Amino acid sequence: MRLARVAGTLALAVVAWARDTPIVHHTYFESSLNKLLYFKNPATLLGLDRTSGTVHRSSDYGAKWTAISDIPSGKASRLYAHPFEPKMAFVLTEDTEHWVT
After folding, report:
1. Distance of CA 63 to the CA centre of its chain
2. Does the model's pTM come out above 0.85?
3. Phi, psi of 55 (to 5 degrees)
4. For range 66-90, the mean pLDDT
């Protein structure tokens, strides 16, 4: 009986340990992201690659990233968080065309 109790405790410990273990994802970009923005919803991230002028978005805590297709590649030069609205960001270009999330 004591052996069964110890085995059951070990099994619960292994399940609890596995649940607390972080899951690591690897995403490779052409060059490093120069800026990362975290929003009020922490699952959503924006990242700026200034070398390629591309803004990438993740909606799953950074596990998967996609380039934002509404912003033409090569145009983005700056990425700023809105100072008062935690759900907004600005993407600026070297020209007069800019984007707001």
Report:
1. 7
2. no
3. -105, 130
4. 91
